[in-house]
Amino acid sequence: MNIDDYKYITNQIFPHGMGTRVSFLINAIAFSKFENKEFIMTPFSYQTKKREFDTNPRTKTYDYIGSCSRWDTILNLDVKKITEIPNVELEKVLPLCFPSFNNTPANDYGNNGKIRLLRGEIKNEYFKITKKEKSDKVKVSVHIRRGDAISHSHRFLPNEYYIKIINIVETFLKKNNINYEVKIFTQKLGFYKNGLEKYKIYLDDEVSDVNVWTNLLNSDIIIGSNSALSTSVGMLTDGLYVHPHRKNQLLVTDWLYGSELNYDLLKKRLDEIK
User: Fold this and answer.
1) Whole-prediction pTM
2) Strand ranges (DSSP E) for 50-179?
3) Residues 229-254: what's their mean pLDDT?
């Protein structure tokens, strides 16, 4: 089948972490807009008769459905859902992970840039997120991935990386007499405070992943990690997003990259979004 054979686009059922699933949701919504197809929502807690979550080794060992249900609370489930599509129409539904046909990742500025331009529409139409409260302080939020990242070198970033980026941000804010607060969101397993003791730290046994996500999204400056939880925020934020490394699949024109960040680059970007 080609794209013209499909009437609907939906987010694919995917037994994985919530950051990955919300990323795929954003991608599917964007693709539906690119192709002028009707988007229908597949709630994160929805399973077909195959019981995808109950049988997958990644998700059957904990209350995955409970986690999905918490994320469903921030989705706009008032839009048309997969459960409302008649069985005879299901073959006209294209489930997607990536913002391109046949699940081919978008590896260029084009699609990612288009998604960024659509971020307001996507948030307003498909999410129910409490609006950011007005504050006289710039909210700086840091997402530090620990947990499984401690045994995966491609995901792990040492405390020194975050300290370096926070210092660059703080130097700019102090030099410009801007009030600010720094909050760190991380996982208890594998996290050590070394060098970060002076900041307010929220662990995953205190704050749920969905609340971490909404806190990041409502921040003015987000220092992300090698995690879909923070990169999905980077796709929708109206603030400044700092991603660790410049990678082909995550090239976004208005992001900054921690591996090359300095005071001048930060100042230039903040001046652009004032």
Assistant:
1) 0.91
2) 93-96, 138-144
3) 89
